[in-house]
Amino acid sequence: MKLGFIGTGKITSAVITGICSSSISYNKIIISERNKSTSSILKKKFKKITVSKDNQEIINSCDWIFLSVTPAVGEKIIKNLKFRSNQTVISFISTITLAQLKKAIKVKAKIIRAIPLPPISLKKGPVPICPPNKKVKDFFNKIGTTVEIKNEKSSINFWSTSGMMAPFYELLRVMTDWLVKRGVKRNNAQKYITSLFLALSEDAVVNSKKDLKFLVKESQTPKGLNEQGVKELSRAGFYKSLEKTLNSIHRRLNK
Ligand SMILES: NC(=O)C1=CN([C@@H]2O[C@H](COP(=O)(O)OP(=O)(O)OC[C@H]3O[C@@H](n4cnc5c(N)ncnc54)[C@H](OP(=O)(O)O)[C@@H]3O)[C@@H](O)[C@H]2O)C=CC1
Questions:
Q1: Which of 58, 72, 141, 218 gets the highest tally of CB atoms within 10 A of its CB?
Q2: What residues does the Pyrroline-5-carboxylate reductase catalytic N-terminal domain cover (predicted)?
Q3: ipTM for the whole complex
């Protein structure tokens, strides 16, 4: 199987890093030259990668095509590319819908939307795909955890929560800086905060059969520090504001 990537930016780089350290079997990966620096780094790093200047040439030579350009570029270029009906086209593009993709691609290829996130480079994290597709599901399960979504409207909900990655890192940054201001060495502060949140996330995954509210409750002792933390942040509107931001990202995606 030959895999082609139209657009070689941050997410292509993460997906290819995941693929190249996984058990996925493929003959070749062809990536577009743009971005020049990213494509040349990937080519140097992984043997089976070829770089092409011509998007159409990538499509002509590959079985699976990953669309990984920004929405504005996608709207401009996809309609001018010629696909084959026996191809699988997987779009990472955030705001181009399945109906719009079908119209631009014209032939009856299999068209799937997927939302890989940067930790896919570590073969970790969820990959929502819509509509469900067995082969695409098996593929992403080798570099993450595929979540099949039947209804495209519902996939927008997942897209909305993916807008919380940078806010999550910002949370870690604020706590780390807080420790640094109190005299803790930066590397110790960062190590403490990142390993604490890694452990908490792993614990939440292990306990994923339980409703998260039990973990919220279990991690508080009456009148303890965590009880104070949740109470004060709730009173300050921290969690309401999180919900409000999710709603506003959702509205933007739903336009
Ligand atoms: N980053 C993320 O976490 C995620 C991103 N996505 C989606 O994936 C898509 C790509 O995102 P991301 O990787 O972050 O964006 P980037 O801006 O990093 O990558 C886009 C790439 O497209 C290239 N490009 C521009 N024009 C063309 C063209 N005509 N032909 C081929 N390639 C071209 C750019 O090259 P150049 O630099 O030369 O302009 C760049 O390398 C977006 O639609 C985004 O919504 C989806 C899931 C997660």
A1: 58
A2: 2-92
A3: 0.98
